[in-house]
Amino acid sequence: METNNLERLLQDHLIADQNRLDRIEGKIDKLSETVVAIARAEEKLVNLEASRVEIRNTVEQHEVRLDMHEARLNSGAVTLNSLSKLFWIVTGALVVAGISVLLGTGV
């Protein structure tokens, strides 16, 4: 009878240990899934950072190009302003010459 009790205690102990090991194994599986998910998230973050850097570089290149175009347009505005002044001076001189010819005074 005592060997029966001893076998029963040993069997209960083995069952309890097996249950505990099963719970530990389940927790390890969950931890490994979490580690894999964290690794995937980290990889996505690295890719997002690389994309952000690439977009930033592209925007900076566009800013440089826009600055160049702005400088070119500003220099064109100065030239256009000078041409406009020259046009009005020539037009004014022609009007004065035309009026003086009509009045017969000559220049």
Brief account:
With 107 residues, this protein is mostly helical.
Please characterize this protein's 3D structure:
It is built from one helix and no strands. The chain has 107 residues and is mostly helical. The chain has one domain. The model has no long low-confidence stretch (mean pLDDT 91).
Protein traits:
single chain; 107 residues; mainly alpha; 95% helix; 0% strand
> Fraction of residues in helices?
over 70%
Q: Give the helix tally.
A: 1
- Strand-residue fraction? under 5%
Structural class: mainly alpha
**What is the H/E string?**
H
Architecture blueprint of SSEs:
Layout (H helix, E strand, L loop, with lengths): L1 H102 L4
